[in-house]
Amino acid sequence: MNPELVTLHVWRVPRRAVPGVLARMATHPARLRRLPGVRFAKLLGTGTGTGFGPGDADLTRWAALVVWDSPADAAGFDASPVARSWARIARAAVRVELRPLTSRGRWSGREPFGAPSGGRVTGPVLALTRARLRTRRAATFWRAIPPVAAELHTAPGLLARFGVGEAPLGWQGTVSVWRDPADLVAFAYRSPEHRAAITRTPTEGWYAEELFARFAVGDVAGDRTVLGWAAEDDPETARGYA
Fold first, then answer.
1. Could you tell me which InterPro entries the record lists for this protein (predicted)?
2. Is 74 in contact with 95 (CB distance < 8 Å)?
3. Computed from CA positions of residues 99, 44, 163, 134, in that sequence, does the dihedral angle turn out positive or negative?
4. If we measure between CA atoms, which residue out of 37, 98, 99, 87 comes closest to residue 62?
5. I need a surface site. Which of 30, 114, 121, 166 has the fewest CB within 10 A?
6. Under a CB-based contact definition with an 8 Å cutoff, are residues 63 and 29 in contact?
């Protein structure tokens, strides 16, 4: 069964809280997965998404991606011990509600977003890419990323983007938010550097496991600038269900 709701939680913390964050990253993944109604969950570090190496990491921003059995289960997250623990150290936070549109590939051997069949969307969409790199191919992958990242930075319709990772090296991905599906499609299939990277993927054999998913963006609650989403964008454009 395809999930009705996926939530992305992102916290901005002061640098003095980083030791506490690292302790949470060690102990909270299992606690998060055990929360009532959680089908799949990952705690993630973040970065700028320009290089995916250790130098790209942002130690003041952290995230959780959670797949829920139902919206009612998701509504209880903020009262959970995990969420309250992060709230104590965060100086800003945002929660994004997502409806899966398409998903291809696996994450930790699973298909966390099911097999959604798309649907009409009239507002913002979020794209998630995630990959586990083959060690012997990592260097060529990292060399290929900067031109794509530079092209992404100037792409029309891009509202926010950042890198995500489960480990300092080799377990990386990207989150990007787009004003509408047409802008995302234009970048994915018409941008020269991105098309070149797509073409190279099968021949280079970069990934041991990969996943690409798109979501309709629903409610965005909290400080959207934590995502890198410009404050001047109209908050009402955050409601993208059709």
1. CrtA-like
2. no
3. negative
4. 87
5. 30
6. no
Do 52 and 130 meet the contact criterion of CB atoms below 8 Å apart? Answer: no
- HSE-up of 92 (CA within 13 Å, CB side)? 11
Q: Are 66 and 6 in contact (CB under 8 A)?
A: yes
Q: Where are the beta strands (DSSP E) in 17-91?
A: 38-47, 57-68
Beta bridge partners of 130: 173, 211
30: its two tokens: 């299992």
Task: Report the C-alpha gap between 96 and 11 in whole angstroms.
Answer: 12
- Model confidence at 50, pLDDT cuts 50, 70, 90, reads low
Let me know how long the chain is.
Answer: 242
Cβ-contact 71, 197 below 8 angstroms: no
Count of CB atoms within 10 A of residue 97's CB?
A: 22
Cα–Cα distances (Å) from 222 to 135, 208, 218, in that order, read 38, 35, 13
% the chain with pLDDT above 70: 74
CA distance 28 to 43: 8
For residue 206, the model assigns a pLDDT of 63
Residue-wise pLDDT for 120-179, tens only, equals 888 999 999 888 776 555 556 555 555 566 667 778 898 998 888 886 554 578 899 999
Report residue 138 as tokens: 């990592």
Instruction: For the domain made up of 5-238, give the CATH fold.
Output: Alpha-Beta Plaits (3.30.70)
Contact criterion met (CB below 8 Å) for 96 and 227: yes
The answer to which of 66-80, 85-99, 115-129, 197-211 has the lowest mean pLDDT is 197-211
